[in-house]
Write a structure and sequence with these properties.
alpha+beta, four-stranded antiparallel β-sheet, Jelly Rolls, 12 strands, 214 residues
Length: 214
Amino acid sequence: FAGYISQVLKNHTDHACDGEYVSLRCPHRTTISIQSSFYGRIVPSHQMCPSRYPHSYATLIKEDVACSVGTSLQKMLDECQDRRSCQFLVNSRLFGADPCPGTSKYLIVWYKCRPNEYKSKVACEDDKLRLSCKKSMVIAIYSAIFGRTQGGSLECPYQNLGMPMIECQSATALQLMIKHCHGKRSCSIYASTYEFGDPCYPGIRKHLNVIYTC
């Protein structure tokens, strides 16, 4: 169980140079959730992914170290999102128009492994949030947000009409929920600033949103 949970909560990073395969893989009963992606070059080739081009050609064409392709995230979502594993060959043709021909590039992708079956629960500020699992099963926390997200929560309507619509979230919500509920059959916690601190301006109504699996 502990090994499974550490894999689920961990942020994975993988990278591949042009001409190499990138391979993402998640444990049983989880799927890939792409967090971010970069394709291009922002460090010189002597630091990462040496140039594939002949040395004589590389000296004629100055290497571009401010090159990034805007389609890399969408491509990774298309290829890998919600799959258990994915693998493909990295090259510039995959990503559409090449903004820096003659510069050898690389792909870096950040992802998590999301449980196939998970539940979501919301508690408005100062209400109690209760989580529970069936007999012989225990709680595994996947994510937790305490604060206010853009657009707010349908369950906790935004009351402060005179205040700007801002996003503010506690940096410690996930650690607190893991400490409080992880590995237990049931748990309860108040969605309060006493428990989570106040990441927002005074007067902004907050909510706690937890995603978990049993």
